[in-house]
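Exercise: predict the fold of this chain.
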Amino acid sequence: MTEPTAIGDLELAALVSSRICHDVINPISAIANGLELLGEEPDEAMREAAMDLIRKSTAQASAKLQFARLAFGAGGSAGAEIDLGDAERVARDFIEGTGKHQISWQGPAVTLPKDKVKLLLNLIALGIVALPRGGALNVEIAGSPPEVTFTVRAKGEAARLTDQVKSLLSGANGAAVDAHSIQPYYASRVAAAAGMTVMAETSEGEVELKAV
């Protein structure tokens, strides 16, 4: 019988930081490129194209950081709650910023303990991972708060989760953890803190992530 994957707090913090940096480096680099082009290009059409790149990249970087703030951040003191309206807003901005994913959201307008909201956002991020070619995410929050159930369905071409992601998400064995696979591991840790259990099921063109 294999032991559950476990890493130290310092390594966990380092890997989460690496993941966040990885997510925002592309739009930040695009902003830098756009600014460089503005400083060198006299053609007005090219300058406008550079400004458009800067505007879009700034919005994308902001959306990713706002999402990471709720999905990974402290979110207030111990026992704090987060408004699901705020979670939906950052999730929509984050997903629509990819340019190839869409989201639908069904759930009550309530506040929930921060660990439960963090788990939901991490499941949404994993839904995007499951759709490398784009697709649709359906988010459902059911039950009577704070006793709720989350279901994230990711539908699209080539929808799948790797065995490594499934193993880390379940916390069932000693799968390796790195900056690319920290998301499912972190989600399993947050689920434990929230008193919830995560299940993943895959079928043709669909991945379902459920937390109960």
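Check your answer against the key: The helical segments are 9-40, 44-72, 84-96, 114-129, 163-170, 182-194.
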